[in-house]
Every structure is written in C-alpha cells, then in structure tokens.
Amino acid sequence: MKFRLISWNVNGIRAIHKKGFLDWFNNEKADIVSLQETKAQVDQLPKKLVNIPGYKSYFNSAERKGYSGVATYSSVEPLTVYRGMGVDKFDVEGRVQRLDFNGFTLLNIYYPNGGRDEERLKYKLDFYDTFLDYVNDLRDNGHNLIICGDLNTAHKEIDLARPKQNEDVSGFLPIERDWVSKFLDNGYIDTFRMFHENETNQYTWWSYRARARERNVGWRLDYYFVNEEFKEHVKASYILSDVMGSDHCPIVLEIEI
After folding, report:
1. What is the pLDDT of the chain when averaged over all its residues?
2. How much is the pTM?
3. In the chain, at which end, N or C, are there fewer CB atoms within 10 A of the end residue's CB?
C-alpha cells in the first residue's frame, strides 16, 4: 500500500485558509497532511477546515490562544491518536501529535524555537532531549516511526544559505546541531538526504524580510525522519518549494508498506 504524506508549517491555519489552502489541499490528494504552527483552537475554525471531505482531522492546540499547535488530516483512520508526550511543560504548548496506523506510527511535531532568549533556548533543548527519550521508547516497543515537522534547526552548512553569518543564531547553534547529529546517531534517518545527499539550495523556510524567498536565502528547517528499520519503505522525499502562503513550504514523503 502506498502513502503520500505532506508536512507544512502554515504559520497560522486561519491565515493560510484565506490564501487558498483548501484548493491546494484538494489538488495534492495526499493521504496524510500534517500541519504545524496552526495558532488556533478548533472552535475558532470554519467548519470547512475541520471537516474536509474524505479526511478525518485531529487537532492539538496550545492552551494559549493564537500560539503553536499541530493538526493532522488523514484519509486513513488511525488506530489511535495521542496528544503530547506526557510532560506538562511541553504539552501545554500543543506541539506533539502521535497517530498509530497499521505498519507505522506518525509523529507530527512543532519543535520549539530557541531564538527569544537563553531561557527559551534551554526549553528547546530540554524538549529535544525529552523527545529523543520518547521516540526511543516507542521504537523499543516495536513502533516503526515517521517523524515530521518544523525542527527549528538546520543541521549542516548545506542546510542554509548563509552558514557563516548564522553560527551564533538559534537554529544553527553548535549545541542545536549537535543534538540533531545525536538524534541521527540513535538510528534515525533524514529522508531528504537519502535522495538528495549533497544537493544545495534546498530550503523550507525563508525570512519575510529582504526578499529572502525571492532570492532563495533560506534554511531547511522542516524534516521527515524515519527509524533505520523503516528505511526500505521510503520511496521519495522532497520539498514543494513553489507552494506559497507561509514563510515555510510543504515537504513530501512517499512510502510503501
């Protein structure tokens, strides 16, 4: 059975709705669409965004209104759906969604941004460590994992346009990049680099300033990861860089079970 999965940080689901999101969604015909940074409670959304024909929708919103949040639309009904990792200080921000399907478990994650101050950077790194323990436990219990979302870190110099100028910026700090390396060393695969190992100028986020997107001065912050045992099921992983509407663009994973 083949699945086409899409992940997209929409920077506000209500904002993207006004920019033709549903037309894009219906044209893509994906099996599962995972969104991050939805910035809305379900009761704030128009019904047509909650009930898309042919899909079940699942939302995990932050307690704070207009902030964070993830959502997943699936044409295949999951066996179970979970919110959060069981740690209150992270779960109140609505950053984690787990959906169990026959053959794999999907994790839709909006990882924290550490750019505001030292306290927020520590929160991000604590989230990373808690998340690694969480996914390792799932894997140890027999789950094959597909992990998608906005990681808020570019892993290597190839993953952003201006690495030298951003060495002291959260999102490309050595401590953040080292964690991504540690995560991969735990037996996880960056699926994009499976197919595009040394490809440059491939980004998923651009600042709204200084015509960054027009000039392709970007960062690759959005990822599909899988555990090594699941790698053989991955058939394609790529970026939809021409899709507008957010400061991020969608990414795609194609698998066969």
Report:
1. 98
2. 0.98
3. N
